[in-house]
Amino acid sequence: MGLAALPSVAAATPAHPAQAVLTRLIGRRANDFMLDIQPGSAPAYAYDAHGGRVTVTASSPVAAVRGAYAYLSDFGLAHTSWEGDRVALPRRLPQGGSGPVTSPFAHRVYMNTCTFGYTTPFWDWKRWRREIDWMALHGIDMPLAMEGQEWVWRELWRGEGLDDRDLDAYFSGPAFTPWQRMGNIEGYQAPLPLSWIVKKRELQKRILGAMRELGMEPILPAFAGYVPKAFAESHPQARIYRMRAWEGFHETYWLDPADPLFAKLAGRFLDLYDQTYGKGRFYLADAFNEMLPPVGDGPVEGGYGDSTANKEAVAEVDPAVKAERLAAYGQRLHDSIRSARPDAVWVMQGWLFGADQGFWTGDAIAAFLRNVPDDGLMVLDIGNDRYPKVRQTAQAFHGKGWIYGYVHNYGASNPIYGDLGFYRRDMAAITSDPARGRLQGFGVFPEGLDSNSIVYAYLYDLAWNGGTKSLSDWLAGYTRARYGISSPEVVTAWLDIVKGVYGTRYWTPRWWRSTAGAYLLCKRPDIAMADFEGAPGDRAALRAGLARLAAIRHDSPLLRYDVIEFTRHLASLHLDNLIRTALVAYRDGDVAAGDRSATEVRRVTIAIDDLMGAQPCHLAGWIEQARAYGDTATEKPYYERNARAQVTVWGGKGNLHDYASKAWQGLYRDFYLPRWEMLFAALRTGTYNPAATTERLIAWENAWVESKEPVAHRVPSDAAGDAARLLAILS
């Protein structure tokens, strides 16, 4: 069976890497699939099943895997997700065909620079192999591939005369490397063990090998200008700026692209990278991610000292000067890559255009892009669920290539939310927008993984022209593949659940009044939180849908997972109300009422913590994963401390504490609850002082991070019963 949209070439692309993905999912039954890869001008596939065999004709290995998985999903035979798989193939595969399916996007992009800190810092090859398979099954062909670069940076800076002591002070800990790479921090949780750097080097070789054999085009790192402090100090004549202190960390140092050293370092980095990992085409360089460019008068603008780049407020500068400086930065950043790799494309995240929109006006964006060739840049417009007007402000990035998408997940926090209706409407609108410019793809750019997997399944279905189905029809197919059952009751339950939680585009509580935390429970306690407004969503619809889902009698691990996940979310929202009730009572002097609510807070928190032991993600597992990366008695506790810090205090003197909060067993009972009980005790006894209480809380948090007390994973003996009892309390 051929595809009219796919002109054949002389030699078809080998299918065996794609076949291997299927084998890992469905075992020997992958032999029942014949993958016919015919490279063409558009990403496409078609499946045709008859006689107990399935033929998938596709434009690439990734499209072939996607086509095979579409068949398995459409007939309810298999499902894959972060939380588990379901595979149930009959002896004879059912007959049917898809007809040609073409993606409206040339590329489907995946991952965020931050994912490599919030989720993957301690992944081994087995876990990465599974994720790459997940990418292929969902038709992703352009993942970010940020692992292993510390080896290249180490070689680069050693070649510039820095010694091991300088580098020990420079590299940040494993869970914080993304922000080191983007120039936000330097030397936090240092020193980074050389053994970790070497392990990541070998891991990246395998990652890139697997991606490339599937025909993926990974996005690789490039030099964006940030240099170690030791390098800045040893080059006093270079045009190096002291940048702003990001989120309460100490300042970092950025080399002006006009300085001859910039092109030299950029070219040398690419040479070292390609020697280690092989050449790529797309190279990511984010010079100003949540950092402001120096744009004042003068070529050096104070150089190593003060500049507009390290001022908290947006400096008032001559617009013409600002425009010229930005145009020069954009051109030279591009040229630093293209001069070393003439066929390469500079990639940058567009997050800065929304996050720092006071600086990045339409005129500023236009100036920055003005001197960059249209085919020399691809902008990842990642934040359309948070900053939906960036592409309009940027006028579709003035003819440059760009990828449209959403972050969805922030800090790998896991409240239950997403907006399926918005995604469907928005994707239809963007693909038909006459002002879309050189739109080249769609992507999902989560800061962390392992939650709300339905959002990602739905989005990548939409990216393969999946918007033709109604939501109820899509849910019927999704639940049939996920649970192995097809019934109106399941679809009705899920439609209620979607109404309850999956109509929320952005989880506003996570940054309420500049305090981070997925739920009120997860925030550092303060009496001012008595004014917390609560969470978005329709709680009554969620409760109704959850009750229906829990009543379905079917032996499905993924059904149990979903019931527990929705229950702990609903219970966490209830818990937030209890906390707020306690705070209001104590504030108003009703100690008895405050105590009653505080007692209930403890009871419900412990019940949720116990229930979450049934889920695959928990604090004990995160710590175990971190410690397993260590080879010595020194490394293991170091990695544990790094892992503990990231999901709790984060770092710096700003507002990042609890940014990566989690609804995990071990955190609810042993971290969040003790903090709230410290505040409740101060309010109960009349000893509450805002500054002193916060100081005690910070000291307690830091002691928890340094603790060597083992963290246990407690698996409930009757998770379904526990969920039912907790749901009864909430009703």
From TrEMBL:
Residues 108-465 form the Alpha-N-acetylglucosaminidase tim-barrel domain. Gene3D superfamilies: Chitobiase/beta-hexosaminidase domain 2-like (3.30.379.10), Glycosidases (3.20.20.80), N-acetyl-b-d-glucoasminidase (1.20.120.670). One of its GO terms (molecular function) is hydrolase activity. Keywords: Hydrolase. Residues 474-726 form the Alpha-N-acetylglucosaminidase C-terminal domain. Residues 17-94 form the Alpha-N-acetylglucosaminidase N-terminal domain. It holds the Pfam family NAGLU. The keyword Hydrolase applies. GO terms for biological process: carbohydrate metabolic process. Coiled coil: none annotated. PANTHER family: ALPHA-N-ACETYLGLUCOSAMINIDASE. This is Alpha-N-acetylglucosaminidase NAGLU family protein.
